[in-house]
Amino acid sequence: MEIGLIGLGKMGGNMAERLRQGGHKVVGFDFNKEATAKLTAAGSVGVDSVEDLVKNLQAPRAVWIMVPDGKPVDDTIAKLKPLMQKGDIFIDGGNSNYKESIRRHGELKAEGFEFVDVGTSGGVWGLKEGYSMMIGGDEDVVEKLRPIFETLAPAPDKGWGRTGPSGAGHFVKMVHNGIEYGMMQAFAEGFAIFEAKKELQLDNAQIAEIWQYGSVVRSWLLDLTAEALKANPELKGIAPFVPDSGEGRWTVFEAIDLNVSAPVITESLIRRIRSRETDNLTDKMLSVMRNAFGGHAMKKE
Amino acid sequence: MEIGLIGLGKMGGNMAERLRQGGHKVVGFDFNKEATAKLTAAGSVGVDSVEDLVKNLQAPRAVWIMVPDGKPVDDTIAKLKPLMQKGDIFIDGGNSNYKESIRRHGELKAEGFEFVDVGTSGGVWGLKEGYSMMIGGDEDVVEKLRPIFETLAPAPDKGWGRTGPSGAGHFVKMVHNGIEYGMMQAFAEGFAIFEAKKELQLDNAQIAEIWQYGSVVRSWLLDLTAEALKANPELKGIAPFVPDSGEGRWTVFEAIDLNVSAPVITESLIRRIRSRETDNLTDKMLSVMRNAFGGHAMKKE
Amino acid sequence: MEIGLIGLGKMGGNMAERLRQGGHKVVGFDFNKEATAKLTAAGSVGVDSVEDLVKNLQAPRAVWIMVPDGKPVDDTIAKLKPLMQKGDIFIDGGNSNYKESIRRHGELKAEGFEFVDVGTSGGVWGLKEGYSMMIGGDEDVVEKLRPIFETLAPAPDKGWGRTGPSGAGHFVKMVHNGIEYGMMQAFAEGFAIFEAKKELQLDNAQIAEIWQYGSVVRSWLLDLTAEALKANPELKGIAPFVPDSGEGRWTVFEAIDLNVSAPVITESLIRRIRSRETDNLTDKMLSVMRNAFGGHAMKKE
Amino acid sequence: MEIGLIGLGKMGGNMAERLRQGGHKVVGFDFNKEATAKLTAAGSVGVDSVEDLVKNLQAPRAVWIMVPDGKPVDDTIAKLKPLMQKGDIFIDGGNSNYKESIRRHGELKAEGFEFVDVGTSGGVWGLKEGYSMMIGGDEDVVEKLRPIFETLAPAPDKGWGRTGPSGAGHFVKMVHNGIEYGMMQAFAEGFAIFEAKKELQLDNAQIAEIWQYGSVVRSWLLDLTAEALKANPELKGIAPFVPDSGEGRWTVFEAIDLNVSAPVITESLIRRIRSRETDNLTDKMLSVMRNAFGGHAMKKE
């Protein structure tokens, strides 16, 4: 089928290509001219404006938005709305907060448009291996997009599904990322323990490779970790600095709001925050207190 | 090659069968006569005593011990020693503490025997899918056992390896289980959040199945979880009670001894302990304190 | 000086009385007629309506609002505004979110009123021992209320202060409560360890009493705990169920928003949430997973 | 009464002086000649050897050992034993592991000596304010030392007590320190949040001072913190590096061994360990994983 795609970055660009390979007509736009040109070169339709994107699609249209969460999504929708017509479908495939998705669904629905929220996982490997998609929205609308999902997914009947009403897609993706934080932290702690156990001369790259087959912890994350460790066994040149992209903290907020105790997902987020702290006041305070009551020496800066 | 196997339970029994299917001669003993009979019925040699086990093997012998950690391992070794001869190999494939393995290696070596510690992962699926094995011990001894490892592993060249000197096998397996605790806890928290989000009517079984393909969290644990949720979506009849088997807490102790901060593995253990606490004094104390300073009502039992 | 006080509950009622004892004229209102009657009986002016409260005060007026956070505060302000005149001061002494306080300050200021946010600590003991007050707002307005603060505080020059501009009072009180959670949890865990160490036959009440003098952990919380343990050493009849009142979770949200890692305050909140969970899905999931990969028996409900 | 004191450091020196001021005859020894000289100058009996110490005391003797835990305690006892006689009392007032104290009690008792374990809290302030003492050992022996405890304590009947049989003193002190870690961490996190909230321009020294009077968090630790912040409001020159002295980690091990979930005490220890980690492998691993699956940029060292 035909689909518009706004945002041709790491994720969007690969998705466009996977859709093209699957026989769909993709009309793509990005502020980055190079990305558009690359799309055209690959055999899809790269356009220079949102107006052109809409013009190149026949109604009822489906436009997949793949831009950073927050204002960029609202801006894109605002730009599209006057150009689109009733029944056209907006798809937000990015990492939006599910509450925003519920709001957008309500607002667009009130004006006669359709809106679907798609939590999209798979990272840079999606082009080759397919994307896992968690979809929230009205059943009939999701059904209309079936050909798109069947192509983007690892297999037509695997790795995607409507998880519930509007918001359910981004909600499930949000928690997916929270779980991802926990798994990553668990692995990272384990390898740090190995590194510290000097007398056993353990080799993290070798261990990761062994675990890929037959172990309880075998997983895609481990596969990638094994490859990365093979390429750079001592992680030379890499700073111990870990960003977080929003969904982890939303998961923590949501767990607390729902009165669900989620210590490991929470701790994984806190640990990432900690990785970015320098000149830590908490630790200085502890040092000062120890000195104050026990006369313990303080390390000086 | 020939191998003796002591302990024909969930793990040992399956391993014996995988070895037999791989063309090895397995002589097996278990206090449970049924287990021995089953072994014989399958085409291996089930025997009624440790003495018979040793008699049925030609020197230099290799005896794989697959019994609970601690005293049972020492008892088995003590019983075997007078029957074995110099150069014979003891293999501890169970979940022993690596410090014990280092001790046993030293003691046996001093008496002319060989000892190898093998951390064995794979659970009840190992017969079909193979075992992941992390091996500690002397290089030449591990090399002698190569045919055994190649058969037990998922593939001859995959899923096993000598990770270091004596103790390195059980050490790596110990941390493997710590990581496993963290991964499990992360998934479990995520599904608990889904269950609590009533208004989105999420379906844990469906979500687990979607994630199996293309998501960042895809893993063997998730595959098993998806199957379990399919069979019992609401986990009916299952108590919220989680044992821990020793290796998780050893990992926590080790991390602290090594001065490695491992909050997520640690928290996963603490949470399991919490699952078994009833009539919680900590929480009662908090309730009493709130009442004492703020006059807040206490819930009565 | 003269002061109006709306909300004569556990906190407000005691504050009114402390103010009266300090020589101030207190005009108090509460929907609960008993509370108003009690105020009058004590020698202050209990009134039946917000209208009467305002009428009984001479401009420029100061009205201290001591009601639950959220809608009740906004409702009270809305009811007061038409009755008050420019320059009159609204004081929110409850546990409001500091963001709301900043908003209310802005809105009231725009209409010519003054607004001060006061985080008030001291619980049911404040009448006797005085209140600790953290105050946010304009300096000149705080200064006008000095006689009130000097009376409510433990001593005229101790236990109160303007901590910053609007919002700073409730912000500091919010974090105060977060710290309180952490301290309480630390004590509670310690006493739970004592109870579990059966062979040493420790006596929590005795230990708490010993620690009150000379120890590093001596504190007001410990004093109250010692008394509570003396009265009920085994905490008989008390359920292990711990509410949380909002400020703890706001502290956690704020720490994350500010990118400050605060694991202990966070964990204290999570543990309170955990105390209220029954039929825990997280723990059931863990049990199911252990069974799925390792064949471990599941405890049945 | 008469007492010998071995170890005249920060703690022991002050205790000797408090005992002298209380009318006791103190015979003190330390390898540091200056410490001994200072003792003599103050009016007690400083001696140059353990032999002289014993000689200067009349049987039945009481010798208080105030040296680092572990080997130094055993060495001191070993040196004393041949010089002492049946019925003499050994007192370990340091931070020994309670399991060692139980062992030492058993060994000394078997040889006709007495042994008492005293957990001593109060730090450098003990000389002035008295020490909190938690005492384990036989009732009659503790009773014989009553004059000593009454003098060292903040008041004759306050701040000390026999908490149980041998080991109970050091056990209670161990957990006391675990609680202390939790309280310190809670305060430190709170002040770090204040520092990060730039727009409110909060002043940690002022807040600490306000809280000292009337707040729920008022405590001795807060008093010391307020003073330290007054002296150095921005904690200039202090490194964010926090040692831990053993008792915190023993508390964590003990909680796990007893199957008591103690997340806050545990997390406080982990956070101290974290403060000493540099070039963190865990965080590098996380960075590498994010790059591997999502193509996220890694910060370079």
From TrEMBL, chains A, B, C, D:
<dbReference type="GO" id="GO:0006098">
    <property type="term" value="P:pentose-phosphate shunt"/>
</dbReference>
<dbReference type="InterPro" id="IPR013328">
    <property type="entry name" value="6PGD_dom2"/>
</dbReference>
<keyword id="KW-0311">Gluconate utilization</keyword>
<feature type="domain" description="6-phosphogluconate dehydrogenase C-terminal">
    <location>
        <begin position="169"/>
        <end position="297"/>
    </location>
</feature>
<dbReference type="Pfam" id="PF00393">
    <property type="entry name" value="6PGD"/>
</dbReference>
<keyword id="KW-0560">Oxidoreductase</keyword>
<dbReference type="InterPro" id="IPR004849">
    <property type="entry name" value="6DGDH_YqeC"/>
</dbReference>
<dbReference type="InterPro" id="IPR002204">
    <property type="entry name" value="3-OH-isobutyrate_DH-rel_CS"/>
</dbReference>
<dbReference type="Pfam" id="PF03446">
    <property type="entry name" value="NAD_binding_2"/>
</dbReference>
<dbReference type="InterPro" id="IPR006115">
    <property type="entry name" value="6PGDH_NADP-bd"/>
</dbReference>
<dbReference type="GO" id="GO:0004616">
    <property type="term" value="F:phosphogluconate dehydrogenase (decarboxylating) activity"/>
</dbReference>
<dbReference type="GO" id="GO:0019521">
    <property type="term" value="P:D-gluconate metabolic process"/>
</dbReference>
<dbReference type="GO" id="GO:0016054">
    <property type="term" value="P:organic acid catabolic process"/>
</dbReference>
<dbReference type="GO" id="GO:0050661">
    <property type="term" value="F:NADP binding"/>
</dbReference>
<dbReference type="InterPro" id="IPR006114">
    <property type="entry name" value="6PGDH_C"/>
</dbReference>
<protein>
    <submittedName>
        <fullName>6-phosphogluconate dehydrogenase (Decarboxylating)</fullName>
    </submittedName>
</protein>
<comment type="pathway">
    <text>Carbohydrate degradation; pentose phosphate pathway.</text>
</comment>
<dbReference type="InterPro" id="IPR008927">
    <property type="entry name" value="6-PGluconate_DH-like_C_sf"/>
</dbReference>
<comment type="similarity">
    <text>Belongs to the 6-phosphogluconate dehydrogenase family.</text>
</comment>
<dbReference type="InterPro" id="IPR006183">
    <property type="entry name" value="Pgluconate_DH"/>
</dbReference>
<dbReference type="InterPro" id="IPR036291">
    <property type="entry name" value="NAD(P)-bd_dom_sf"/>
</dbReference>
